[in-house]
Design a protein that fits this description.
Helix content: 10-25%
Number of strands: 28
Shape: elongated
CATH class of the largest domain: Alpha Beta
Oligomer: single chain
CATH topology of the largest domain: Spore Coat Polysaccharide Biosynthesis Protein SpsA, Chain A
Structural class: alpha/beta
Radius of gyration: 22 Å
Number of helices: 7
Length: 339
C-alpha cells in the first residue's frame, strides 16, 4: 500500500457470548454470571445505561473516533477461543460469517473483531498502530488476566476464504501477535462489577465519563434532570436525563441514578445504582444496592429481593416534566451541594 494511503477499517461488534462452552456443549453458569443474568435480564447488558450512555454506544463511539468507517453489530457470535478450537454453534457462526463476508465485499482492509462484554480504557488507535508496525495478519489484545476477546485482522487474508471465515481465522490465531494492555479493565461478570464501574467513573479512576454536565464538585446531571431545591446532593453523584428528585431527598456516596427515574419525597440513596426508568417511593433508604424495576440487589449481602408493592419500587415511563427553570439541572444557590 502506498505511503499516506488511507486504510479502510471496519468492525464487527458482538453483543452476547454464546450459550455454549468451548466444546460446543451447554455451559453451566457460575454464580456470578447466573446472578447477573437473573438480575439484569430485563435489559441486555451492552444496552444498559451506565452514567447515561450504554456500553454499546460508548464502544461504537470509540471505534468511530479511531477511524472505523463501518461497525456491524450482531447479537451473538463466536469467541476467539472458540474460533481457535473450531467449536462454534452453527447459528451463531453463520450470522458471524455473514457479517465478515459483508465487510470483505465492502473492501474493508483492516477488520476489528470484538465483544461488548467487559469495559476497558483500551485505545483502539494504539492497537491498530501496533498491528501495522508488526505487519501482523492477526493481533489479539491481552490484559494481565487473559484475553479481552478483541482482535485486529488483515482482511486481505480473508478474501480467498470462500466463505470459510471461521476456519481461516481459527488457523491464524496460533500465529497471532499479542498486544499487551495493562490499563483499566472491568469484566462486568456480576452486579457488583457494574456498580464498581459507575463508582470508578465518577471518581475518575477510568476514562468512562458521565453523559451530561458537571454542575458542582463531582455532581453530574443529564439534560432535563430536575432536583428539588430542598435536596442534599453530595458528590460524586450522577443524575440522568429526565430524572426527577423530589423534595427532601438525599443523594450521596458515589450514587448513580440513570435516565427517566423518579426518587420520591424524603428518600435517601447512598452508594447505590438506580437503573433507567425506575421509581423509588416515599421516605425510603436505599443503601449499597442496585435497583431496577421491581428488583433490588444488595451488594454486600449478594441477595436479590423482588418487591411487588408498586408504592415502593416500580418501573416508570419516560418522564416528561415541565422544566420551570431547571433545564439541564439545578438552581445552585438554593440546592445544597455538599463539598
Amino acid at each position: 500500500m502506498a505511503e499516506g494511503e488511507q486504510v479502510q477499517i471496519g468492525a464487527i461488534l458482538t453483543l452476547a457470548a454464546s450459550n455454549s462452552n468451548e466444546s460446543g456443549t451447554h455451559e453451566s453458569l457460575n454464580d456470578g454470571a447466573r446472578k447477573r443474568r437473573q438480575f439484569l435480564s430485563n435489559v441486555p447488558n451492552p444496552k444498559l445505561d451506565l452514567l447515561g450512555k450504554s456500553l454499546l454506544d460508548r464502544t461504537a463511539d470509540k471505534l468511530r473516533q479511531s477511524g472505523v468507517k463501518t461497525t456491524t453489530v450482531i447479537a451473538e457470535g463466536p469467541t476467539l477461543t472458540q474460533l481457535a478450537r473450531s467449536f462454534v454453534s452453527s447459528d451463531a457462526g453463520a450470522t458471524w460469517d455473514r457479517a465478515v463476508a459483508e465487510s470483505v465485499r465492502e473492501g474493508v482492509q483492516t477488520l476489528i473483531l470484538l465483544r461488548a462484554g467487559a469495559y476497558t480504557d483500551l485505545d483502539f488507535e494504539e492497537v491498530l498502530r501496533f498491528h501495522g508496525e508488526q505487519s501482523a495478519t492477526l493481533t489479539q489484545v491481552y490484559a494481565p488476566d487473559g484475553s479481552l476477546d478483541i482482535a485486529v485482522v488483515d482482511a486481505r487474508s480473508l478474501r480467498n476464504a470462500d466463505g470459510a471465515y471461521r476456519k481461516t481465522l481459527g488457523a491464524l490465531i496460533p500465529k497471532q501477535e499479542r498486544f499487551l494492555y495493562d490499563g483499566y479493565v472491568n469484566r462486568l461478570r456480576k452486579p457488583q462489577d457494574f456498580r464498581r464501574l459507575t463508582e470508578d467513573a465518577l471518581c475518575g479512576k477510568c476514562r468512562l465519563r458521565p453523559a451530561g454536565s458537571e454542575v458542582g464538585d463531582g455532581v453530574w446531571l443529564g439534560a432535563g434532570a430536575q432536583i428539588d431545591e430542598s435536596c442534599v446532593i453530595e458528590g460524586p453523584v450522577y443524575i440522568g436525563a429526565g430524572t426527577r428528585i423530589g423534595a427532601g431527598c438525599t443523594i450521596i456516596g458515589g450514587s448513580a441514578i440513570e435516565r427517566d427515574c423518579e426518587i420520591d419525597f424524603g428518600t435517601t440513596v447512598e452508594q447505590s445504582w438506580i437503573l433507567q426508568q425506575t421509581y423509588i417511593g416515599l421516605s425510603l433508604t436505599v443503601r449499597h444496592s442496585i435497583v431496577s424495576n421491581q428488583k433490588m440487589f444488595h451488594l454486600d449481602r449478594k441477595a436479590e429481593i423482588a418487591i411487588t408493592d408498586s408504592s415502593l419500587i416500580r418501573a416508570t415511563k419516560s418522564l416528561a416534566f415541565t422544566q420551570q427553570g431547571h433545564q439541564g439541572g439545578i438552581v445552585k444557590n438554593k440546592l445544597q451541594i455538599a463539598s
